[in-house]
Amino acid sequence: MSQNRVTFGIEKLHIAYLNTTTPTPTWDTPIPIPGAVRFSPEPQGEETTFYADNEPYWTYTSNNGYNAELEMANIPDEVLAALLGWEIDANGMLVETTDGEPKEFALLGQVLGDKKNRRFAYYRCKASRPSKEHSTRAESVEPATETLNIRILPIEINGRNIVRGVLELNDKNQAVYDSFFTNVVIPGATVGA
């Protein structure tokens, strides 16, 4: 249970590419991506209500993951190329292709709390082309950001459909908390066992 009254900020953003060649999900080593400005996941799913005896008798809410926007100061070309299936040519030019194979990935990060920081993992993400606005310089310089649209989907881990995990340091999880950005931590994971 969280000890925080409020959370704020975003930092320590990492991505880890999903390995699709194994029967159970595994991820490559997380890569830090500095420059996180804003991350806003919007839940996807519907609530179904069944009526009987002239009243709501049964309800079900589906969890279809999230649609998210990730605003970054700048997304490195190597990351864009891998995420979207684009290419970097011999001259170092980032080439947007129409037939590339995008990579799915886990998105890891940390939000600050008034008592303790909370680390999050969204396990199966798919990115689409980022939007970026360029404008003329005026009296003051305003940095341009890039916004990446991300579809966050459920993934089967140990027989359960999982979307995300959130971890706050407590007296039982120090090792898992400390290793959060070195490996993708799945629910129930132990370190050094």
TrEMBL record:
Domain of life: Bacteria
Record-given protein name: Phage tail protein
Organism: Geobacillus stearothermophilus (Bacillus stearothermophilus)
Native organism taxonomy: Bacteria, Bacillati, Bacillota, Bacilli, Bacillales
